[in-house]
Amino acid sequence: DLSVLDDTANPGNARKYSVNGVDSSNAVDCNQLPLVAQRVAARYAMNFKECLASTSTATVNAFDYAVAGATVEDGSIGLAAQIARAGTLGDKDLLSVWIGTNDIIDIYTRRVAGEYTSDAQALAEAARRGAAAAGIINEKILAVGAHAIVITAPDMGLSPYARARLTASTPDPSAMTRLSEISNSFNGYLRVSIDPQRFDGRNFGLVFADEAVQAINANSAGYTTYLVSPYNITDAACGSTPLLTCSNAIDTTTNLNTGGLVTGALYNTHLWASDRWLGYPAHYLLGLTAQNRLSVLPF
């Protein structure tokens, strides 16, 4: 979901699972408030068809294979299936891989439901899925000579989703701790299971979304380039508004469009767009981090 560009209803002008940017005509513009994947493509001046107006003559040379709701091992829309849609890969190809949030929430809900009978069992499953994601990256991307920017899943223990579980109708006082531990287990095994004997900085780079979320939570005022006052790291900017319809004008001095945002929220005041999906400040920070990583990797 974090990389999905959905132009089903708006060909050439996709909506995102984040806060969507509004242009000077008060219309949603896919190229405003770019996702991490869009910044990776922009590093090479490449264009997604989902963000080109129907009359544009620009060359389409970036491709979005992300699917909403995907988990790592889903047979039809999981990581391997998404990579397969890209066709034959080679040493001229770069893929950005960002998956795991749906797995973390799935494991947590199964733990609360009792399908996993202990926290240790849930953590073991998170580790297995993180390693499985790395295995797919090893064999389906890196082993065929392609390159990857791999982004860790956010620390979901710090998400509005986790905080809401504390006061739900059936509260879970351990929700934040459990979701952080599941996130750490998934990400830890994702990071260490990309085969260090075969692949290194000539093949892939890592961007740490989990650490970024933790750092912003620890010191929001230290990230004013991305997150502006009044800093909000606990609530969803879009509230209950579906993200594909949630939008905000960038120039708020002349256009106060709120497009479904909660009272007082702007596109850059809230770390989270929804209870589980990151907002623009995180995409901005992580997108620049990915661009910087690509500038020093020996691809």
List its salient traits.
299 residues; two-stranded antiparallel ribbon; alpha/beta
Provide an overview of this structure.
This protein is an alpha/beta fold. The chain has helices at 36-42, 79-85, 101-113, 119-141, 160-166, 175-192, 209-218, 280-296; strands at 5-6, 15-16, 20-22, 94-98, 147-151, 204-207, 232-236, 247-249, 270-272. It has a three-stranded parallel β-sheet with strand order 4-5-6, covered by helices on one side. The protein has a two-stranded antiparallel sheet with strand order 1-2. The mean pLDDT is 96.
Helix-strand string: EEEHHEHHEHHEHEEEH
Q: Order of strands across the widest beta sheet?
A: 4-5-6
> Biggest β-sheet, characterized?
3 strands, parallel
Oligomer: single chain
* Helical amount: 25-40%
Structural class: alpha/beta
Number of helices: 8
Beta-strand level of the residues, as a percent range?
Answer: 5-15%
Q: What is the average of the pLDDT values?
A: 96
* Unreliable segments of 5+ consecutive residues: none
Q: State the separation between the terminal residues, measured CA to CA.
A: 27 Å
Rg estimate, integer Å: 19 Å
What's the gist of this structure?
The protein has 299 residues and is of the alpha/beta class. The chain has helices at 36-42, 79-85, 101-113, 119-141, 160-166, 175-192, 209-218, 280-296, and strands at 5-6, 15-16, 20-22, 94-98, 147-151, 204-207, 232-236, 247-249, 270-272.
